Task: inverse folding
C-alpha cells in the first residue's frame, strides 16, 4: 500500500501525523462557528417549510398533473448519489490497494453517512402523510396484507436501509484506532469521551489481527453494495414505462453519475477542510489530482450515457420516446437540460489538462458546477420526463417548484453540513492509522526515524 | 477485618507481572518477536500504531476466525431475504402484474441486500467477539500511550524472579526503554 505521492516531506512522521490530525480537534476559530451557524440557519428554514407542509399538505409543493415526483425525489436521488463516492473511495480503492485513498477516505466516508441521512428524509417528506412513514417497514397491515416485494420502491427501502447501516458501521470501524490515538494525546473531558468511544483499543497484535481481517470483509461486502444501491434507485424509474425513464442503461448510468457527483462533493468539502485545519502536508495536490481523474473518468461515462439515451430514442424509432427526448432538449425545460449537459459532460473535459487538475481553486469551482449539474440531471430525468409525458398530451404540464420546495431543499443542505461540520470538529477527519500505513515505517537499518 | 468488594476482582483485576519494552523501530520490534519466540515465549502482547505484515509474519498467527462470522452471516442473510419475500407473498397471495405470486427475480434484490446487511453486521460482531475475547486480560497488561502514536511495544508476562533475561533480550534487540510492570 505504498503511496506514490512524492509531495510529502521528510517532516511527515508518525508523530507529525498524530499531532496534525489531533490539532483539528482543538479550538476551531470563528470561521468554523460562522459556517456551523449558517448550516443551522438553513436547517431552520427547511424545518419551517416542512412544518408548513405538514400543516397544509402537499398542495404547498409545486405538484401539478402529471408531475407528482419533483424536487423532493430529485433531492433524494441527488443525496443518495453524493453518498456513493465515500464507499467507492473507502472500500473499492481499499481492495485495489490505492495508497492515495488514505488521506481522503475518512472525509468521504463521513460524507456518505450524512448524505444517506439526508437522502432518507426525502421519501418521508414526499409521501404526503408523513406521520405514516412506518408503513414502509415490512409488517402486515390491519387486513394482514404484506408489502409488495415486486415493487422497486420496496427494493429501494431495503437498499438504502442496508447502505446506511453498512456505511455507518464501516465509518465507526475505521474510526476506532484513530479515536484511540487521539485519546492518548487528548486531555480533559475529551480524553474521557475518546476513552469510551475507542472501545478499549490499544493496538495489540490480537486486535489488529481480527480488525484487519474484518475490515477486509467489510470492504468486500460494501463494494457490491455501493454498485447495487444506485442501481436499485435507478430502477425506481427504469421499471416504470414513462418515456425517458424506461431504459436498460439506467443502472450503470446512475452508478457512474453517483460516483461522479460524490467525488465532486468530496473535492468541495476537502478544499476548505484542508485550508481551515492546515492539513496541506497530509492532503496534497497529488490527492486532489487523483480525485480529479476519478471525476474525469466518471464524467466521461455520464456524457456517454447522455449520448446513448438520445441515440436510442432516435434509433429505436418509438414516437413517444422520440417526443420525450425532443421535449427534453428543446421543450420548455431546455435550460435545465442544457445546464446538465454543459456542467456534467463539457465542463469536466477541462480536467484533461494537468495545470487544471493540480489547481485547487480551479478544481473547487469545477466541483461546484458538477454538483449543480448533477442536481439538474436528476431534475431533468424526473420532472422533465414526467412533464413531457407524451401519453398525457392534453394536460397542462407546467411545473414550477414553490418556496416550500426550495426551502426544504435548502434545509437539506443545512442538515448535511451541520452533521458534517460537527463530525470534522469532534472526530479525526483524516485517518491517522491509515495515513501512517503509507508512510515508510521507522527502521533502524534505513535510518528513518519516527 | 478489611472488607473487599467482590466485584473489584472483575473490574479492577490485579496487574499481570511482566516486562514492557518500548521500541522506536519496526525492524527492532520484529527482531525481538523472533528472539522471544525462539526463547519459548508464546503469550506476549505486541502493540503497534498500525497493522504491519512484518509483525504478523513474525508472530505467525493463524488467520482470524472473523471470516467464518462473515460467511455464516451472509448465508443467513440470503436465507432471511428469501424467506421474508416468499413467506409474505404466499401468506396473502395476490397476483400483481400477471406475475407468479412468489416470483424469484425481483426477490433477488431483497436477498442480495439482506446478504450484505447480515454479512456486515455479523462481521462487526465477529470482530467485537474475538477482540473482546482476546482482550480479557487486556486491562491488566501494561500499556503506554505512545503505542498509538509512534512507538511499538512488547509486553512479556513473567514472574519478577525471571524478568532479568527477558529484560536483557528486549534491550539486546534494540528496545529504547524497558520497564517492569
Result:
Amino acid at each position: 500500500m505504498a503511496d506514490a505521492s512524492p509531495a510529502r516531506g521528510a517532516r511527515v512522521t508518525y508523530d507529525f501525523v498524530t499531532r496534525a490530525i489531533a490539532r483539528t480537534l482543538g479550538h476551531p476559530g470563528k470561521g468554523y462557528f460562522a459556517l456551523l451557524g449558517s448550516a443551522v440557519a438553513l436547517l431552520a428554514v427547511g424545518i419551517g417549510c416542512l412544518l408548513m407542509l405538514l400543516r397544509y399538505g402537499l398542495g404547498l409543493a409545486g405538484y401539478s398533473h402529471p408531475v407528482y415526483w419533483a424536487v423532493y425525489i430529485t433531492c433524494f436521488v441527488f443525496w443518495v448519489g453524493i453518498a456513493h463516492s465515500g464507499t467507492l473511495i473507502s472500500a473499492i480503492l481499499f481492495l485495489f490497494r490505492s495508497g492515495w485513498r488514505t488521506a481522503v477516505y475518512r472525509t468521504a466516508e463521513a460524507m456518505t453517512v450524512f448524505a444517506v441521512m439526508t437522502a432518507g428524509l426525502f421519501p418521508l417528506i414526499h409521501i404526503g402523510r408523513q406521520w405514516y412513514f412506518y408503513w414502509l417497514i415490512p409488517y402486515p397491515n390491519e387486513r394482514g396484507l404484506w408489502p409488495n416485494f415486486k415493487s422497486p420502491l420496496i427494493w429501494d427501502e431495503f437498499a438504502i436501509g442496508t447502505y446506511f447501516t453498512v456505511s455507518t458501521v464501516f465509518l465507526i470501524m475505521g474510526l476506532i484506532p484513530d479515536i484511540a490515538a487521539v485519546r492518548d494525546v487528548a486531555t480533559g473531558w475529551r480524553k474521557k469521551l475518546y476513552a469510551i468511544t475507542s472501545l478499549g483499543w490499544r493496538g495489540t497484535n490480537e486486535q489488529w489481527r481480527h480488525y484487519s481481517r474484518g475490515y477486509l470483509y467489510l470492504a468486500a461486502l460494501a463494494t457490491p453494495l455501493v454498485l447495487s444501491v444506485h442501481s436499485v434507485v435507478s430502477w425506481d424509474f427504469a421499471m416504470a414505462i414513462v418515456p425517458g425513464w424506461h431504459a436498460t442503461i439506467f443502472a450503470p448510468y446512475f452508478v457512474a453519475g453517483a460516483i461522479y457527483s460524490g467525488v465532486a462533493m468530496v473535492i468541495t468539502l476537502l478544499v476548505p477542510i484542508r485550508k481551515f485545519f492546515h492539513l496541506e502536508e497530509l492532503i496534497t495536490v497529488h490527492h486532489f489530482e487523483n480525485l480529479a481523474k476519478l471525476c474525469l473518468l466518471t464524467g466521461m461515462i455520464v456524457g456517454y450515457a447522455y449520448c446513448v439515451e438520445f441515440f436510442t430514442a432516435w434509433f429505436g424509432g418509438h414516437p413517444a420516446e422520440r417526443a420525450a427526448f425532443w421535449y427534453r432538449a428543446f421543450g420548455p425545460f431546455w435550460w435545465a437540460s442544457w445546464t446538465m449537459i454543459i456542467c456534467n459532460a463539457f465542463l469536466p473535459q477541462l480536467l484533461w489538462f494537468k495545470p487544471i487538475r493540480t489547481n485547487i481553486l480551479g478544481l473547487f469551482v469545477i466541483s461546484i458546477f458538477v454538483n449543480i449539474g448533477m442536481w439538474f440531471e436528476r431534475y431533468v430525468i424526473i420532472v422533465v420526463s414526467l412533464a413531457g409525458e407524451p401519453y398525457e398530451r392534453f394536460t397542462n404540464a407546467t411545473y414550477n417548484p414553490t418556496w416550500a420546495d426550495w426551502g426544504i431543499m435548502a434545509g437539506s443542505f443545512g442538515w448535511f453540513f451541520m452533521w458534517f461540520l460537527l463530525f470534522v470538529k469532534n472526530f479525526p477527519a483524516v485517518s491517522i492509522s491509515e495515513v501512517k500505513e503509507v508512510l515508510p515505517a521507522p527502521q533502524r537499518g534505513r535510518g528513518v526515524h519516527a | 477485618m478489611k472488607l473487599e468488594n467482590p466485584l473489584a476482582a472483575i473490574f479492577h483485576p490485579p496487574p499481570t507481572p511482566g516486562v514492557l519494552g518500548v521500541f522506536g523501530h519496526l525492524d527492532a520490534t520484529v527482531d525481538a518477536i523472533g528472539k522471544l519466540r525462539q526463547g519459548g515465549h508464546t503469550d506476549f502482547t505486541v502493540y503497534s500504531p498500525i497493522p504491519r505484515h512484518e509483525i504478523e509474519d513474525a508472530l505467525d498467527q493463524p488467520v482470524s476466525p472473523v471470516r467464518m462470522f462473515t460467511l455464516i452471516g451472509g448465508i443467513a442473510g440470503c436465507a432471511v431475504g428469501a424467506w421474508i419475500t416468499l413467506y409474505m407473498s404466499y401468506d396473502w397471495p395476490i397476483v400483481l402484474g400477471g406475475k407468479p405470486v412468489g416470483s424469484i427475480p425481483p426477490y433477488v434484490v431483497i436477498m442480495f441486500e439482506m446478504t450484505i446487511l447480515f454479512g456486515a453486521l455479523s462481521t462487526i460482531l465477529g470482530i467485537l467477539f474475538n477482540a473482546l475475547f482476546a482482550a480479557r486480560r487486556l486491562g491488566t497488561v501494561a500499556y503506554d500511550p505512545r503505542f498509538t502514536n509512534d512507538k511499538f511495544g512488547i509486553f512479556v508476562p513473567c514472574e519478577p524472579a525471571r524478568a532479568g533475561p527477558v529484560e536483557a533480550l528486549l534491550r539486546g534487540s534494540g528496545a529504547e526503554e524497558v520497564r517492569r510492570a
